[in-house]
Structures are given as C-alpha cells and as structure tokens.
C-alpha cells in the first residue's frame, strides 16, 4: 500500500519535470490521484507514462494557450492549444460554471486537447457550486459501431454529477462501451478470456480473446448485438463523439490520432487533438434550490431502499462505492498494480526522482 | 395499407371528440402519424386508445394550462397542467428553441404531463431552426435497476437530432432499455420467447418469457448483467429519469402512476404526471454555422462509408432508415397491426366516426 501524499507528490514532481507550472502540475496530479482514490485505477497513475510519451513525441505542449474561440451567453468553444486535458479541462469546466452563474446553464466544447483523466472529476466540480455537472470526451478509436468491421469510436465516457440535500450526490461516471479498454487489459494481463459478447476480431466476428485489441480487433457497443440493443449503445457513443469533437472541431471517431501504439492511424488527418464537452446547470435553474434538493434526496432514498435480488445486498446508487473508496484509500493507502509500479519506477529513473 | 391522410384525419377527429382544440388535435395527430411514417408504430396509433382511457379516467385534462413556473435566461420549468404530452411538449420544445435564440442554448423541464409520443419528433423540431435538439421523458416503471428485484424505471427514451450541411441530419431516438415494452408485446403477440438477457421474472431471475411484464417481471437495463455493462445502462436510464422528473418535480422512477393496467401502483404518491426534458443548442453556439455543418457532413460521410462485417450492407447512420420509411409510407400507405386496427375500430364506434 502506498501513501496518498507520497504518490501525489511524486506525480506532481513528474509533471513539473515535464515543464508544467507548479500550480498546473498540482492540479494534474490531483486529478490522477482522485482516480486512484475512487478505485478507477485505469485512469490513474498507470496513465502517467503515456503522458510523458505524448510529451516526448511532441504531441502535446506543456504550456498550452487556452483560447476562447467563440461564445454565446451560455456556451463557449475553447481551443486547448495542444495541451493535456489535465491542464485544459479544469479551466474549461470552470468556464462552464461561470456561464451557468448568469445564464442558468453553461456548455463548453474543447478541441486540441488530450487525455483528461476521469470524466467524473469535472462533473463533480459543479457540485461545489450547487450545480449539476456533465463531462464527456472522445478517445482512441477502439469501439466498432453496429455492423462495422473496425473500431471507429472511442470508449467515450460520460459523467453526470447531481447534488442532493442531505444525501451525498449522485455521480455516474462510465465509459459508454460495455467495458473500458483498461478492463480488457486486465483480462489479458491475467491470461483470461473476456466474457462473451464484448469483443470482435479483425473480421468483425465475436471473440473472447482478450488480446484481440492488439491484433486488429475491437470492442463492441453497450448492449452487444442488435437483438440486445447494441445499436442503442452505438447511438450513445456516437452522441458523445459528436458533442465532444464535432461541436468543437477536434478529431472525431476514426480520425482521432491514436495515443496507443497498437491502434492503426487510419486517416492521416491533421491532429486537432481529441474533444471534450462540459456542462453545468444551476440547481435553481428549474425549481428553487430547496425543492431540487428535496427531490433529489427523495430519488436517492427511494432507490437506496429498493428490494435487491437474492444474493445481492442492495441497489447501488451511482457514486456510492467511489465515495466509500476515497475515504478508505486516503486512510489505508493505495495499492498499485505491477504495470503501474513499473511505469512509475521507470519515470523515477528517467527524471532522477526518488520513488 | 391505409392512406396517410385518411388516418391523420381520423386521428385528429378522435382528439377533437375528446375536446382538444382543432389546432391541438391536428398537432397531436401529426405527432402520432409521424411515428407511423417513421415505422415506430409502437408510439403511433396503437396508443390512441390509451389516451382516450386516460381522458375517461380523468387522469388528463384536454384543455390544460401551460405555466412557466420558474426560469433563467437559458432554462425554464413548465407545469403541463395535467395535459397530454402531445399537447404540452410541442410548446415546451418551442420555448427551449426561443431561449436558445438569445442564450445560445435552451433547456426546459416539464412536469404534470403525460405520454408525448416519439421523443424524436421534438428533437427534430430544433433542426428547422438550425439547432441541435434533445428530448427525453420518463415513463411507467418497467425496468429493473442493476440488482433490483422490481421494475423501478421507465424505458426512458432519449432523442438527439443534429443538423448537417449537405447530408440529412443525424437523428438518434431510442428507449434506453435494450428493447421497448412494445417490442416485448410483439414477441408475446406472436407467441415467441424474447431473446436471452432482456427480461427478469418477479424474483429477479433471468427469463425469456415474453408475457412476464404482465406477471410481475421487469425489463433489464441496456447491457444486461454487470459483466456486460448493465450498470451503465442503469446509469443512463437513471439520468433520463432525474433530468425529466427530478429537475421538474414530476413523479420519478417507481412513483410514476402507471398508465398500464398490469403495472402495480406501488407508492400511492400524488400524481404530478411524468416529466420531460428538452434541449436546443444553436449550431453556431460553438463554431460558425458553416464550420459546424461541414464537420457534421464529414462525420456522417465517414461512418456511412465504413467497412461492414460480412453479411451486412452498411453501417446505419441514426435517422437514415426512418427518413427512408417516411417517404415510402407517405407514398404507399401505412400498414397497421391487428391490435392497432381493433383499437381504432372501437374508437370509431365510441365516437361515431366512420373508419
């Protein structure tokens, strides 16, 4: 188990060594550490070597210019200037929150950005302002649309955070694919097959081979085949791609320049980064804040006291397990997988930082 | 095959006999007929007897008061005054569009409303105004959250319509459950089992029995079990419930007073109707309209020319099949199922209208 503060400081130092300002390095470290605390380790420190590689390959700049290109009272387009999402996205979410203060809601699309960590971090920023938060992003083309032979869409996560009154907030934060790429990596690392229906091979045939993403295969959409609603999963992932990348003018779908060595760069499109989309809505935009909070408390309590099926203790309110994990991990420390540990050790050596 | 105009006139007359104004009866008929044209017959004329029953049971009023209860520059809460969604929702969507004209985006939550037909109708209204349209609603509690024994959420549809330049628009319109209740009814009517993984029985055990919704069973969420991402489907359906009903103060989740005889009214909650949520975003809210249209044309063309798996002709762009169907059905006439036909004949008799 590793102490939270030790890992935080190490991560901040790596970002500083890359050339981020102290404040932005702390911000970026905070986002990655929040993922570790919330047990979303696929979006935590395991990504740090990827960011360093993006920087070494000159895909990102560490002192990006943040430009508001176009705006209306409730919207803005931001050009992230080829910075990491960890640097640009907090500013974009802040802008959405500022817009919402006067317009009731604020919506910000971002282009020329890169990986931003967990979507939930940004959605939860709204909670501190008595707002509902929304965050989404597109990503490496790994998901095959219904009937497509090839991966053309990202695992495109979406996060929605809704404050309540006495209850803790509702925080949904999920890849719109049935599983994340990280989960498939875990099956592969353990030498296990993936469950049926999640993957297809290079010809588009169903497979359980958990190494298939490195061999021309793709993830399927949420739902799987058409009989099980997989075309709805395609719609959902496509909507996230359009909101994140077409609204902003970032690279969309298969034109995303991959950050993964094993994903083919099919289009040779100009690199305008990936796109994000952020939203903030005042809780008193529709009713009084009091009525809203009481309503959300009612919703959460109704579902929390629902009758579970045999063998399950309860219905899980989105955000509950992660909130519990934050508390436990902060107290007892964070466990890191071998891949993450090796990555951090290599970074320690590269930058001459003690680990 | 039935002529479009004949069915339209009949439907309008039924609504007029119920007491709707000529203009609102035409509007309501238009929404139902749009579903028939688009081959979404589960939301077409088969629903007309349900609306008459709601009216006879005094669940709805036919001359509802439309009240804007609360607003900000980009948002509003509407009380539908216990009117049909077919009457209230077009006005609410219009309000969202008006808000977007000045604020860049417009967002309207509605309570005290009832069934509004196809969500896509409202989302597509935005297209005529060079806007992106969003529509969602909650519904009868038929979907069991992950680990829940009982149906607690509706099939809660979501529609997103995005205009392009030279290409026809992207129109996604889907129940967030893997299949709609109507689809299960079709399996039952044909005496067939439903595919694996879509349904659970009264104890929460998986079943393929297509009559199970009438016997205490429930639909599962998109994705099915946790290994296949069913908890993400729960999040999605929950988000639609919260946006539609908690934002507005309508009945949420299991507190929705069912319009289906076989769904138990579990809570005895006050009937504040179901809730809807509408959004409109100007296409020039983030970039110039020209850049947006070019970007969306690029997105649509990229996916339309994707390589299909063996046995499939193409990847389907959401909205394409429905647009083709509209043209064909308008020319060649509309086919009606037995249940729909019987319902219409009974209404003809009840109201003394020739059919």
What does this structure look like?
Two copies of one chain form a homodimer. By secondary structure, chain A is an alpha+beta fold. In chain A, 38% of the residues lie in helices and 16% in strands. The first copy, chain A, has ten helices and ten strands. The first copy, chain A, has helices at 4-18, 22-37, 48-56, 85-103, 119-125, 181-189, 230-246, 289-304, 320-332, 338-351; strands spanning 67-72, 75-83, 105-113, 131-137, 157-162, 170-175, 199-200, 206-207, 218-219, 274-282. In chain A, the strands form two sheets. Chain A has a seven-stranded mixed sheet with strand order 1-2-3-10-4-5-6, with helices on both faces. In chain A, strands 8-7-9 form a three-stranded antiparallel sheet, with no helix packed on it. In chain A, strand 1 and strand 2 form a beta hairpin. The radius of gyration of chain A is 20 Å and the shape is globular. The model of chain A has no long low-confidence stretch (mean pLDDT 96). The interface between A and B is large, with 88 and 88 residues.
Strand elements of chain A, count: 10
Number of helices of chain A: 10
Largest interface: A-B, 88 and 88 residues
The CATH class of the largest domain in chain A, by name, is Alpha Beta
Shape assignment of chain A: globular
**Which oligomeric form is depicted?**
homodimer
CATH homologous superfamily label of the largest domain in chain A: Malate/L-lactate/L-sulpholactate dehydrogenase, NADPH binding domain
What percent of residues of chain A are in strands? 15-25%
Average pLDDT metric of chain A: 96
Q: In the CATH scheme, what's the topology name of the largest domain in chain A?
A: Ribosomal Protein S8, Chain: A, domain 1
Question: Would you identify the CATH architecture of the largest domain in chain A?
Answer: 2-Layer Sandwich
What does the radius of gyration of chain A come to? 20 Å
Kindly name the structural category of chain A: alpha+beta
Number of domains of chain A: 3
Biggest sheet architecture of chain A: 7 strands, mixed
Helix content of chain A: 25-40%
How far is it from the N-terminal to the C-terminal residue of chain A, by CA?
14 Å
In N-to-C order, the SSE pattern of chain A is HHHEEHEHEEEHEEEHEHHH
Low-pLDDT segments, ≥5 res of chain A: none
User: Could you give the order of strands across the largest sheet of chain A?
Assistant: 1-2-3-10-4-5-6
């Amino acid at each position: 188990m590793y102490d939270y503060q030790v890992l935080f400081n190490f991560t901040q130092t790596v970002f500083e060594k890359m050339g981020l300002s102290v404040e932005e390095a702390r911000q970026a470290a905070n986002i990655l550490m929040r993922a570790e605390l919330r047990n979303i380790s696929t979006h935590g420190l395991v990504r740090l070597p990827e960011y360093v590689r993006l920087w070494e390959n000159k895909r990102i700049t560490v002192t990006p210019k943040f430009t508001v290109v176009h705006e209306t009272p409730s919207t803005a387009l931001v050009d992230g200037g080829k910075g990491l999402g960890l640097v640009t996205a907090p500013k974009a979410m802040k802008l959405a929150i500022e817009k919402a203060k006067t317009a009731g809601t604020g919506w910000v699309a971002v282009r020329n950005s890169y990986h931003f960590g967990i979507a939930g971090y940004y959605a939860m920023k709204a909670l501190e302002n008595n707002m509902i938060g929304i965050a989404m992003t597109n990503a490496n083309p790994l998901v095959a649309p219904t009937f497509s032979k090839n991966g053309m869409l990202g695992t495109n996560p979406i996060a929605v955070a809704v404050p309540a009154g006495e209850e803790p907030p509702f925080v949904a934060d999920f890849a719109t694919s049935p599983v994340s790429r990280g989960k498939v990596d875990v099956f592969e690392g353990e030498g296990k097959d993936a469950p049926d229906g999640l993957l297809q091979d290079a010809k588009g045939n169903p497979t359980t081979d958990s190494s298939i993403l490195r061999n021309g295969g793709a993830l399927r959409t949420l739902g799987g085949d058409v009989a099980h609603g997989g075309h709805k999963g395609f719609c959902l992932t496509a909507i996230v791609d359009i909101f994140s990348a077409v609204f902003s003018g970032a690279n969309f779908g298969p034109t995303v320049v991959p950050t993964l060595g094993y994903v083919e760069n099919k289009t040779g499109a100009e690199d305008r980064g990936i796109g994000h989309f952020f939203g903030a809505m005042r809780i008193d935009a529709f009713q009084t804040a009091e009525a809203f909070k009481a309503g959300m408390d009612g919703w959460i309590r109704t579902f929390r006291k629902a009758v579970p099926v045999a063998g399950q203790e309860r219905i899980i309110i989105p955000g509950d397990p992660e909130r519990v994990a934050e508390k436990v991990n902060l107290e007892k420390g964070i466990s890191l997988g071998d891949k993450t540990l090796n990555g951090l050790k290599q970074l320690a050596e590269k930058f001459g930082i003690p680990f």
